[in-house]
Amino acid sequence: MNLPESYIPILIQAGVAIGFVAISLLGAHFLGPQQKKGNSVKNQSWECGIPVEGNARTPFSIKYFLTAVLFVLFDIEIVFFYPYAVNFREFGLEGFFAVLTFVAIFFLAFFYVWKRGALDWDK
């Protein structure tokens, strides 16, 4: 198999990553605590010593999910800023206007979310 030399570091990194995952999973399985099967009191769920009330299917407020989606949205925005920050001189004025448009779209999304009340935790 003839691979270009530029693929060798990628293959090494992939092998190290896969090896790390395999060692972590096997180590957790063999070195982690072993639980006994059954319905004993020790296997029941407890939160700070308080007995469980209700079941695990109690719905959460949509605010938690909305906050998670907003975090991911604005976190991805930062990921797209990195290539621009590294190469902003090569992009020139056209790249600047592209990033300005990108920021404007995110500001519109932010103001939309703000006006819809997604950031108001009191409601």
UniProtKB/TrEMBL annotation:
Q: Which reaction does it catalyse?
A: a quinone + NADH + 5 H(+)(in) = a quinol + NAD(+) + 4 H(+)(out)
Subcellular compartments: Cell membrane; Membrane
Function (record text): NDH-1 shuttles electrons from NADH, via FMN and iron-sulfur (Fe-S) centers, to quinones in the respiratory chain. The immediate electron acceptor for the enzyme in this species is believed to be a menaquinone. Couples the redox reaction to proton translocation (for every two electrons transferred, four hydrogen ions are translocated across the cytoplasmic membrane), and thus conserves the redox energy in a proton gradient.
Domain of life from the UniProt record: Bacteria
Membrane topology designation: Multi-pass membrane protein
Transmembrane regions: 6-32, 64-84, 96-114
Database matches in InterPro entries: NAD(P)H_OxRDtase_bac/plastid (IPR023043), NADH_UbQ/plastoQ_OxRdtase_su3 (IPR000440), NDAH_ubi_oxred_su3_sf (IPR038430)
Q: Which family does it belong to?
A: Belongs to the complex I subunit 3 family.
Q: What is this protein called?
A: NADH-quinone oxidoreductase subunit A
Name the major location. membrane
Alphabetically list the UniProt keywords: Cell membrane, Membrane, NAD, Quinone, Translocase, Transmembrane, Transmembrane helix, Transport
What top-tier enzyme class does this entry carry? translocase
Assembly and binders? NDH-1 is composed of 14 different subunits. Subunits NuoA, H, J, K, L, M, N constitute the membrane sector of the complex.
UniProt organism field? Chryseobacterium gilvum
What the entry lists under HAMAP family is as follows: NDH1_NuoA
Q: What is its EC number?
A: 7.1.1.-
